User: Which sequence fits this backbone?
């Protein structure tokens, strides 16, 4: 019954989360000759010839109803193409290893750089073609099996499998690197002794657990046509640009491949400026120059330590750092994020800080990830920590209560609202359909052309995924017994974490698969276990990993499964590629981290490091702060009765209520199609991730997405259809190539420039408090 209920939720998702740009397409489809674009066949035939027409199964009523997908994803398939070849294995494992090494290495830097799989997606193409041209074609036989190093031309399906393996090096080592973050916090911040085997189990079980969730939910988040995963379209567009040739009759201007190469080269050359020669372009805070002696002006205008009003970035890495590429996010999703961002940064925060002095806000910087004492100084956690890494209550009472910067505190409160709003939104907008169609939803699945083409391949049995799921759960429970003192999380806490992940992965997956936004519940996971196990920061970290981070990895695996669905990769080949990539990535991820923790002096210790050291670990600092807030000090002391931040708990109720008026209005005015597009969980996502994300990161993301997915989409639809996703891929690739080159050729050798343009932020007063009587080194006294 439960899977049927869930599937109906997913099948109904398109009704209320249909991408806003489709409204503009409605008047365009009948007149634009571009919509008659015929997806080219993906085969080993002569690429200069006209592609064959789509199969008869792709009639108009069977095409994907999501226009972006119908325009970008090929509707043909060649099942004869070899997939799991020697080339795919060799290049896939090599790409995976290189990416996980680079992403793990860069994640510790002051300016983190996540290198996407696009770097390898581009890099392996000439290598694959070279191998196809040089490797022997001789077949080797073994009983009934035969094998060849060179089955023919390097094809698009091999390329997809290689990229899927490489993507494991991004999802595990890049982004926020959650499991490695926990291990880093345990060893670098808490100075805890931890065995390599225990750390390896933490890394691998969280990955495999996520893979198990993905296998259980693939019927609901991969197969339905409404679950279209917008971020995959950039990958599909790039694959086609690399392997197909535009028809001469339709190629006006640059072909997609030419366009990609031109803009990748431009992005590569340009990133030398913000990446090395002129870093101030990453965030340009001109307000601070106009008012160099005003604390308030610098708090408002600083891009790094303030609200970033008037600040801007000319750095693609800064634009896409935290929400991904804005070019692949639907406009209606960008609009929702914009509404939440403007409300939070330009209305709520200024009122709370300057007008009402909420939570004694003016005693602290307006924007900071640091923790503070009641006197406005930085909080020293070692003074309240026991040798067993638990809270010393008497020392805490003698020292000081814990205080947060106002933006940090309100960002936590927004997480409360976001969690309940997600549950409420899904229940209201999809509850009726779930109730009415729960028994027949799975049987009445409408198959589009892509699903029909995939039926020609053997599916992965569910028990393959169940083995991984059960195995990872068993190893996790074993760890809680064998290394009980190290992990602090008892076996029942593990089971509680698994249950939480199972409940929330699906509704969050619905939102991500349709809006390209992922509402988080990190705060809720830590809030819950903080009440159950107060004073245990390591237990809090581990609960977050198993209860929340396994969901993030599950969604990453599901996105890759949808990519395989679009590119017609045999499901069993996808299973093997993802599983092997996950295991290799986990081992290399931990090995690199372990080496860095043991060989780089004072890694992540900002106080002990040289001022010019790049190893300040800003992302892991936030992870450590969260363990202190929710684990060491505990939510009861901060958010319970008598706690300074107790009123933020009301946001749980507010978040649950906010979707109700939207739902009521959608029923009263059914002809107003824009009303259901108001998505409260996505609106609340406009102020998620700050810190470490800054308001300028998010504002630049919004502006760029608006330009391309509203104005360009509306007024230059032909250009958008042909080049938008290719441009996103080109910017990612060029930036990543230059970032790697700059680091190993210059920055790693200590060849750093020192001049006015290399100072990241000319706003020294932005970190100062504004309350009278608070004394902070480097800040003018306030009377």
Assistant:
């Amino acid at each position: 019954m439960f899977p049927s209920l869930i599937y109906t939720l997913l099948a109904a998702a398109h009704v209320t989360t249909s991408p806003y740009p489709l409204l503009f397409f409605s008047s365009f489809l009948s007149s634009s000759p571009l919509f008659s674009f015929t997806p080219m066949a993906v085969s080993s035939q002569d690429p200069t010839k006209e592609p064959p027409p789509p199969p008869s199964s792709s009639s108009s009523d069977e095409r994907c109803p999501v226009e972006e997908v119908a325009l970008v994803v090929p509707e043909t398939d060649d099942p004869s193409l070899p997939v799991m070849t020697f080339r795919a294995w060799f290049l896939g494992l090599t790409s995976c290893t290189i990416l996980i090494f680079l992403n793990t290495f860069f994640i510790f830097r002051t300016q983190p750089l996540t290198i996407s799989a696009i770097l390898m997606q581009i890099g392996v193409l000439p290598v694959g073609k070279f191998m196809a041209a040089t490797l022997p074609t001789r077949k080797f036989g073994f009983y009934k099996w035969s094998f060849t190093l060179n089955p023919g031309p390097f094809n698009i399906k091999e390329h997809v499998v290689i990229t899927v393996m490489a993507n494991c090096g991004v999802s595990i080592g890049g982004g926020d690197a959650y499991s490695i973050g926990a291990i880093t916090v345990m060893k670098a911040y808490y100075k805890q002794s931890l065995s390599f085997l225990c750390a390896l189990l933490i890394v691998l079980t969280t990955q495999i657990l996520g893979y198990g969730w993905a296998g259980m939910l693939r019927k609901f988040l991969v197969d339905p046509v409404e679950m279209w995963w917008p971020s995959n379209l950039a990958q599909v567009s790039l694959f086609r640009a690399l392997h197909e040739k535009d028809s001469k009759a339709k190629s006006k201007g640059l072909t997609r491949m030419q366009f990609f190469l031109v803009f990748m080269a431009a992005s590569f050359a340009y990133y030398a400026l913000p990446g090395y020669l002129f870093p101030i372009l990453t965030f340009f805070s001109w307000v601070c120059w106009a008012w160099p002696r005003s604390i308030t002006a610098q708090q408002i205008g600083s891009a790094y330590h303030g609200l970033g009003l008037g600040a801007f970035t000319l750095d693609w890495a800064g634009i896409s750092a935290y929400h991904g590429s804005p070019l692949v996010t639907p406009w209606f999703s960008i609009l929702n994020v914009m509404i939440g961002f403007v409300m939070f940064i330009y209305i709520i925060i200024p009122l709370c800080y300057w007008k009402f002095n909420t939570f004694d806000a003016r005693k602290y910087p307006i924007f900071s990830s640091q923790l503070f004492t009641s006197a406005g100084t930085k909080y020293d956690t070692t003074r309240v920590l026991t040798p067993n890494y638990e809270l010393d209550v008497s020392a805490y009472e003698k020292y000081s209560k814990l205080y947060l910067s106002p933006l940090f505190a309100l960002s936590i409160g927004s997480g409360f609202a976001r969690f309940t709003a997600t549950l409420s939104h899904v229940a209201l907008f999809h509850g009726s359909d779930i109730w009415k169609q729960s028994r027949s939803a799975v049987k009445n699945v409408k198959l589009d052309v892509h699903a029909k083409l995939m039926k020609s391949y053997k599916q992965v049995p569910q028990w393959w995924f169940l083995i991984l799921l059960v195995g990872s759960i068993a190893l996790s429970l074993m760890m809680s017994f064998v290394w009980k003192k190290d992990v602090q999380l008892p076996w029942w806490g593990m089971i509680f974490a698994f249950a939480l992940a199972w409940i929330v992965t699906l509704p969050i997956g619905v939102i991500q698969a349709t809006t390209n936004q992922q509402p988080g519940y990190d705060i809720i996971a830590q809030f819950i276990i903080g009440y159950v196990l107060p004073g245990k920061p390591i237990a809090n970290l581990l609960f977050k990993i198993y209860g929340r981070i396994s969901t993030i990895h599950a969604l990453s695996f599901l996105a890759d499964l949808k990519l395989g669905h679009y590119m017609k990769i045999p499901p069993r080949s996808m299973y093997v590629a993802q599983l092997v990539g996950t295991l290799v990535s986990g081992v290399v991820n931990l090995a690199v981290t372990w080496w860095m923790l043991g060989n780089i002096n004072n890694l992540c210790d900002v106080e002990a490091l040289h001022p010019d050291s790049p190893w300040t670990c800003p992302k892991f600092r936030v992870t450590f702060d969260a363990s202190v807030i929710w684990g060491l000090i505990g939510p009861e002391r901060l958010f319970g009765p008598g706690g300074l931040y107790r009123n933020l708990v009301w946001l749980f109720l507010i978040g649950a209520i906010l979707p109700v008026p939207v739902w009521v209005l959608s029923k009263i005015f059914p002809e107003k199609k824009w009303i259901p597009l108001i998505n409260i969980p996505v609106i609340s996502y406009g102020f998620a991730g700050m810190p470490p994300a800054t308001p300028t990161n998010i504002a630049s993301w919004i502006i760029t997405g608006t330009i391309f997915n509203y104005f360009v989409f509306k007024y230059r639809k032909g250009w958008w259809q042909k080049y938008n996703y290719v441009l996103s891929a080109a910017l990612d690739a060029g930036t990543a190539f230059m970032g790697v080159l700059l680091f190993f050729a210059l920055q790693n050798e200590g060849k750093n420039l020192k001049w006015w343009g290399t100072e990241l932020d000319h706003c020294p007063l932005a970190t100062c408090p504004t309350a009278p009587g608070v004394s902070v080194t480097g800040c003018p006294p306030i009377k």
About this structure: The longest strand covers residues 139-142.
